[in-house]
Design goal:
With 194 residues, the chain is mainly α. The protein has a domain of 135 residues: Four Helix Bundle (Hemerythrin (Met), subunit A). Helix content is 49%, strand content 3%. It is built from 6 helices and 2 strands. Helix 2 packs antiparallel against helix 4 and helix 5 runs parallel beside helix 6. It is globular and about 40 Å long.
Amino acid sequence: MTTQPVHDPRPLFAQAVDQAEQQITAVRPDELSNSTPCADYDVRALLGHMVAVLRKIARAGAGGDARNVADVADGIADTDWANAFTQARGEVEEIWADDALLDRMITLPWATLPGRTVVDAYTHEFTVHSWDVAAATGRLGELDPVLAERALDAFAEFAPPESRSGQGPFGPVVQVSDDADVYTRLAAYVGRRP
């Protein structure tokens, strides 16, 4: 009898976070007030949200209450976003290096899920937010299409249009042409207006 290898979502998560980090590093201080496709955030607030998400992942992985972490990190100097992101990422990688976390139930502000599912979900969130930053700063050509394909497949499974209430992070699907690039289709699927 052959057993299937167990899926480790951390390498793909690292790719998505690498991409996010590249986008954050490229942001200039004069771009921080640009609006983003993520309606609640300008670039500064979106970067603060991305740092906060890493802090939530670390807190939840360490067994703490991620609800106590603000949705947007503040108090970060305009020239220090990349450093803040890298520091938060290091904490996530240290905590989530423990293989046992992948099979443990992890409590997040919005659900309690197996660790593997948590890592997958945040992989796709970082993929979308990388597009948000790239769209707001004119760097769309720098994104990895493989990450978008994986995110689009995942969102179709766990955030189908018929299950959306309009109260969460996903708006109604926006119609785009069938030949649109994968990031445009991903953005439209999660309710952005590319």
